[in-house]
């Protein structure tokens, strides 16, 4: 499609209105994570490595909350497209019930047994000590996060993405400022290193929760009411679990498998690989913000179209999202290549670590395309139609029957060179392409999953 045609296409303009704030939000998230690594670079490689490993637990919790948010997106977007705002709030309450229970579990674990959590990833005593202090302070942030993400997911499903972006701008800006204060000891504060990162994150999350409560109080549509957790509707709860559980299991399964990549690198490939991988992840997080934004926008826009029974328009819009996804994957790969000389010059790594990082970045320059296509289809298009089961099946088989066993075999048994192990781990996204693309072409994901008011009232 020609550029002039895109500019004049109403659907592309709608996609842009949704996608741009989400992309900016994703950029801010990546910026905060990168700021941690950049500032800790001045403290030492041990602090970078420890935070990189400890952050795997936040990654798992993120995947849990993202899975619950997906349940909200699937049902909420379709019911909003149908014009039923009260049902959207009921879905929010169901999600809050689960998110607070799970976030509390993570919080207690990080508070009580942080050393044991770190020992899963590394045998290095220094990294265990630094990481355990980081996790203990971060435990309070997990609880705040469990509430914040559910409400923001609800706002996104009704298209209020700009509000979410503004909240993130304020919170992440505060996080970056506090990172500098606590890492470098500005304004008379003590220099805290990795502990400072945890403290900055916890304070920022607490402030964000306060802002969320203020936004909710002034909102004319969906509100954050803890009483929603106790409202009972068996039919809607069953629908939510039927949609959200496969998505949650998918995201948790994928997140845990991806964390095992860190275990493989940390336990078998050495501290140079751990440090290099933390920089590679930082660059990759920036490179995938466009594809992640497109996937989220696809879930919102397609869900609303399907909920209002505009099936033909939904199918055509999905095709437009896919064209944008391929373009975003190409752009992401270029970002990795262009950033390579700057990252290598900046990274405070050993010569061996820089050699590893150079190859990692090259691998990521094409790995981004695999991530982009799968994220957009599995995390966006399919879930818009309530099809979360397919993603769970294909991701679980790919990660647990292929990628993780291959990683352990190549690193622990065959003892291949570190970069060969990394290369093999980065084939996971492309292995599932044939099944993912075939499922898109089958149109089995294109379903209206809403119920009539009489059915919901009966529940």
Order of helices and strands: HHHHHHHHHHHHHHHHHH
Count of runs of 4 or more consecutive helical residues: 18
Main sheet, how many strands, which sense, barrel? none
Inertia-based shape: globular
Task: Determine Rg (CA atoms, Å).
Answer: 22 Å
The total of beta strands comes to: 0
The helicity comes to: over 70%
Instruction: Tell me the span between the first and last alpha carbons.
Output: 47 Å
Q: Write down the domain tally.
A: 1
| Arithmetic mean of pLDDT | 86
In terms of structural class, how would the helical and strand content be classed?
mainly alpha
Topology:
Blueprint: H1 3-8, H2 10-40, H3 45-81, H4 85-112, H5 114-119, H6 125-157, H7 161-184, H8 194-218, H9 234-269, H10 271-287, H11 289-307, H12 311-346, H13 351-384, H14 389-413, H15 418-425, H16 428-431, H17 433-442, H18 453-458
Helix pairs in contact: 2-7, 2-10, 2-11, 3-4, 3-6, 3-9, 3-10, 3-11, 4-6, 6-8, 7-8, 9-10, 9-14, 10-12, 10-13, 11-12, 11-13, 12-13, 13-15, 13-17, 14-15
